[in-house]
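Thread title: Can someone regenerate the structure for this chain?

I was given the following input by a collaborator and told the matching structure tokens would be attached. They weren't. Posting the sequence so someone can regenerate them.
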Amino acid sequence: MLTCMHPSGRNYRVVVYCASAAGVNPAYLEAAAALGKGLAEAGIGLVYGGATVGMMGAVANAALEAGGEVIGVLPEVLSSREIGHTGLTELIATGSMHERKAKMLELADAVVALPGGFGTLDELMEAVTWAQLRIHDKPCVLVNVLGYYEGLLTFLNTAVSEGFLKPANRQLILVAANVEEATAMLKMRMKENDELSV
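Best answer:
Regenerated them for you:
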């Protein structure tokens, strides 16, 4: 039985990187909502960018509606553009984007990236780079909704074949075809952690 309790005694948490936009296909918002609901139902807390709009708002609202813990991290520079969510378990303000990214990763035990733009890629690549440098060992899962990230995955494979990325480090990005697969990956990793901590 998966308890989703971190060895420290708190619930496991996942940081979700995703867009403040909704995207043109409703499937993107649906995936964000499904992920938020799935995490909450599994007893896994959500850490995200703190906004009420787009995919960020969808993942947070779905987690809250399912009774989950939701922590938002919003830098002051974005407070006027990404309206801070006032209904969260906790909303943390940071002085910069750098502080935001560090805080989000610090609070979480795993990383999930849904479709997004520059910001989502920036957050994901920093988290994966830190894993490559052994700064953390948190799993990084990319959810390839509707094949959205096929171009990125092709680039990463090219980086391996051209000698700029070691095959072992390429494997630091786990790829899930959908939210259900991503949630299963997270549950498996957390179950392994629970067994190791016994």
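Residues 13-190 form a domain with the Rossmann fold fold (CATH 3.40.50.450).
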